[in-house]
Amino acid sequence: MEEILSIIFNGINLVKELEFSLSAQDSPESLSSSLGSISTLFRDANERLGILLERKNAFVPHQPEPKPVVVSGLDQMMMQIEPGLKQDHIVREGVKISDSGPGCAFSTPRPRRRKKDGAVETVLVAAAMGNVDTPPDDNYVWRKYGQKEILGSRFPRAYYRCNNQKAYKCPAKKQVQRLDEDPYMLRVTYRSSHMCQFFTISTISSTTATPVNYGPNVHSMADLMFENTDSVVPSSEPYFNHDSLVPGAARYEDSWNSTWQNYDMS
DNA sequence: CAAATTTGACCCTA
DNA sequence: TAGGGTCAAATTTG
After folding, report:
1. Å from A6 (CA) to B6 (C1')?
2. pLDDT digits (tens, 9 = 90+) for A94-132
3. Coil vs helix vs strand at A10
4. What positions of strand B are covered by protein, i.e. any atom < 7 Å from a CB?
5. Are strands A157-162 and A142-148 parallel, antiparallel or unpaired?
6. A208-236 average pLDDT score
7. What is the DSSP letter of A62?
8. Predicted local distance difference test score (pLDDT) of residue A199
9. How far is the CA of A148 from the C1' of B8 (A)?
């Protein structure tokens, strides 16, 4: 299902590019090429959906897998058009909360923990339009601290931690990886919640490059717009919020470009 | 020159 | 023990 959604979102991206081509009055050849790509993608997605439906009708699974919540492609387009909305997620694959809260992250002698260091949330986002290498801007400043080749994956996984980790011991981390089946889609896994914004509320006027909430909670807004009742921040993670804005994440793009540029997209 | 990124080595968990 | 996550020195960038 994830793969099909990826294809659909990819198609939506292409439609948007076609829209720009129209306004730029591109040549008929390039328009035709775009249309061909779009129709191929959607036909492919439709065929796959048909296969999926056949399978579903054939048998009922014991444990239904976590249901992805589709927030609609329009939402993605709005992200591209409206910078303030760039943050929102496209597909939420599910939310898993471990029994250790954010406060537990520092309780063990060795800080090197994994898999149990707070909330884990995985989202699928489309790469920014026009530049497949651009990572999703989630309005936080992240620092890359590692990259690894993952077994069975075409693309490496990049590891980021919150830029405020030093200043505020913010435990938030995220992993970004391109999907094998669709390099235009990125799987972003968030681990632990941001504690930094909690600190910056009181120091809002005295610091720079710290998360500041300039607008409404975009997540909630998208939920409202698309009646997405599942897309709710985990209640046990009161500080989990991707929506506060941070001025200037330009370097992030640079690192992303350098990260992916050596990978064959064909 | 400071800050950010890269990358090989190390560590931890399943 | 393999594979994934993190560290930290080296390198790059602004």
Report:
1. 30
2. 433 333 333 333 333 334 444 444 577 888 887 665 555
3. helix
4. 4-9, 11-14
5. antiparallel
6. 34
7. S
8. 58
9. 11
